[in-house]
Amino acid sequence: MHLREEILKENSRAQTLRIAHWVGKDPERTAALAHLFLHDEYRVVQRAAWILSYVASSHPSLLQPHLPQMVARMGDPGIPVAVKRNVVRILQFMTVPEALQGPVMDYCFRFLEDPAETIAVRAFSMTVLANLAQQYPDIRHEIILLIEEQLREGASPGFRSRAKKTLAQLEKLGKKERRH
Q1: What are the tens digits of pLDDT across the range 42-52?
Q2: For the range 148-154, what are the long-range contacts, defined as Cβ-Cβ under 8 Å and sequence gap of 24 or more?
Q3: How far is CA 55 from CA 38, 61, 136, 168, in A?
Q4: What is the pTM of this model?
């Protein structure tokens, strides 16, 4: 399969799943897909991002070698929202390596507190931060404050739904922490 050609051939869920299945558990195919995601033109990046999110949900360990570049890319000025959205989506499924936890937290807090950011990026950032709060309970309160502030200011149904789940996760974490 010529990966780039297949990505450009059709933009559909069926094609996305077909390519994700082809990538499967193969590290070389994953590397080729990650390269297109990180370095190609917008349309290829956008479609590769969708495929990568499926690969990450099935085989998160395959993306570990590419995480430093993916996280670094989130700080690029003018980053396409598809890149940002899908990097944060992918991070939901993974254990963030210790060396990347600081930058990931920084980006996710910035995305979450930015009312101009897309709902998907903010929602995925909530989940990533809640996952990191298991290792860093000190950030739990800040996440809760940010979410509650945005809920007070009026949030979309999608944001409210994710916020409710995240707040429940953080509350459960807080109860667990108080027992220890």
Answers
A1: 899 989 998 99
A2: 150/112, 150/115, 150/122, 153/115
A3: 15, 10, 27, 28
A4: 0.88
